[in-house]
Design goal:
The protein is of the alpha/beta class and about 450 residues long. The chain contains eleven helices and 21 strands. The strands form five sheets. The chain has a nine-stranded mixed β-sheet with strand order 6-5-7-8-4-9-10-11-12. It has a four-stranded mixed β-sheet with strand order 13-14-16-15. The termini are far apart.
């Protein structure tokens, strides 16, 4: 009698092994291996055997370049993040915390596309068609070309795609869809891998643009196996709290464009709408208070003026607190150590809190100078004028280094009636604002 073959699979990365392991050697996840049934093992074998062994490699000089065609979603901020519009045949993953507006945005986008005469299918595995209809009435998104399907079985979704030719497909959400040919639970690595492969095949064969919604964990990453992010063409994340009006859509992967652009949306009664006049939405110019400084960051090609807030208070515990919201906490600790070393400001006995207004997370170093200015302002209890911005990267040796696109940042600041700029070098283009050159951290106190 043939010995039964045992195979285990990691539910995070898909690694298979004949022995159970407590820790995955590929992704490092603990207690993630489950035993595959004979049917699941046969499915994996069929996938491997279906790959042709005949060579199909061609010279890169013989490859004909494909021209990418895009169509607009009629949402300018979404088109900006996608690189100019939606590409037919593409598979896009969009994630975000519950209530941030993923389903609302895609239902509105589906309605916009349906209004142009294209057929759109919205597949929901979490809500009924009646619930979607209520949301559509609120968003005024009722069009004859927008079709709803409440289904969680992949095979029934594929039958519907064969029944009618659709141009745009929305899956809400990928973790609720399952295939009847696989016995594992919905959301497992086997289910997600099989379903995503089928959706990718349908997207390429039928030239359908597909958007899928993915749940996220409390750490902010897509829940379930990480293989999902590697298989799709585009990965988008919603940033921002559901209690805030402004939401930021950021691209983390895009095979058809850059990932440096962001989209800013505003939640209103009619749903998520493209935010207008966002230049003055992230800072307050009403009054000058201690612990507040302005800076300009670049999100792709868009300069945005932000307000950096700092609170320095005397600590009553042996270990002073250092906490940052919207800013890297490790970089904050480095800047505080630099203040004590170069400027001899005793912060070891003080709690320091940093906050970036508007819910934006700063990923570049151009805000270092504004962070230092806000901390010094709070420590000395001296307000900084709201007509002054700080732009510069601070190094470990105390130098203030230049940042890219300085002229574009200053131009945006000038449009917001800011008259003074503290920078590391003079701008190339002439501006009508006063510029103060600070090439070392020690000169920051001279400016004060």
């Amino acid at each position: 009698m043939a010995k039964k073959k045992i195979l285990f699979e990691c539910q995070h990365c898909g690694l298979t092994t004949p022995k159970w392991m407590g820790k995955c050697t590929n992704c490092g996840a603990w207690d993630s291996f489950v035993e595959l049934t004979q049917h699941q093992q046969e499915t994996i074998k069929q996938k491997k055997s279906s790959v042709s062994s005949s060579p199909k490699a061609v010279s890169i000089n013989d490859v004909v370049e494909e021209e990418i065609y895009r169509f607009s979603s009629l949402e300018s901020e979404l088109d900006n993040v996608l690189g100019g519009g939606i590409v037919p045949g593409s598979l896009t993953l969009i994630g975000g915390s519950p209530g941030v507006g993923k389903s609302t945005l895609l239902l509105k986008v589906g309605s916009n596309i349906a209004s142009t005469g294209k057929d759109v299918l919205y597949v929901t595995g979490e809500e009924s068609t009646g619930q979607i209809k209520l949301r559509a009435n609120r968003l005024k998104s009722n069009h004859d070309s927008l079709y709803l399907l409440s289904e969680i079985r992949l095979e029934q979704i594929l039958l519907e795609l064969e029944h009618r030719r659709y141009d745009f497909l929305i899956i809400d959400s990928i973790q609720t869809i399952y295939s009847e040919n696989i016995t594992s639970a919905p959301g497992s690595v086997t289910q997600v891998r099989q379903i995503t492969f089928e959706l990718m095949r349908i997207a390429k064969e039928k030239d359908i643009a597909i958007f899928i919604i993915g749940h996220i964990t409390k750490e902010g990453s897509i829940a379930g196996p990480r293989i999902l992010e590697h298989m799709v063409d585009t990965v988008l994340y919603f940033e921002g709290d559901s209690s805030q009006e402004l939401r930021i859509l950021r691209g983390f992967k895009n095979r058809f464009g850059a990932t440096s652009e962001i989209g800013v949306f505003e939640m209103k009664t009619e749903g998520l709408v493209c935010a207008t006049d966002i230049a003055s939405r992230f800072f307050n110019r009403n009054s000058s208070q201690s612990g507040s400084a302005l800076t300009v960051i670049m999100e792709g090609s868009r300069p945005i003026i932000l307000e950096v807030q700092a609170l320095v208070s005397e600590s009553h515990t042996p270990n002073a607190k250092r906490q940052a919201t919207g800013f890297d906490n490790n970089r904050l600790n480095m800047l505080l150590a630099l203040l004590e070393r170069k400027l001899e400001i005793p912060l070891s006995g003080y709690d320091v809190f940093i906050n970036i207004t508007g819910g934006i997370k700063i990923t570049e170093t151009a805000a270092d100078l504004a962070i230092l200015a806000a901390i010094i302002s709070s420590f000395r209890d001296r307000a900084i004028s709201k007509e002054t911005i700080f732009i510069g990267e601070v190094s470990l040796v105390g130098d203030v280094r230049e940042v890219y696109a300085l002229d574009a940042r200053l131009k945006e600041a000038k449009m917001q009636n800011i008259t003074k700029a503290v920078v590391s070098k003079k701008p190339l283009e002439k501006t009508l604002m006063k510029t103060f050159i600070v090439d070392e951290v020690t000169k920051l106190l001279e400016w004060y």
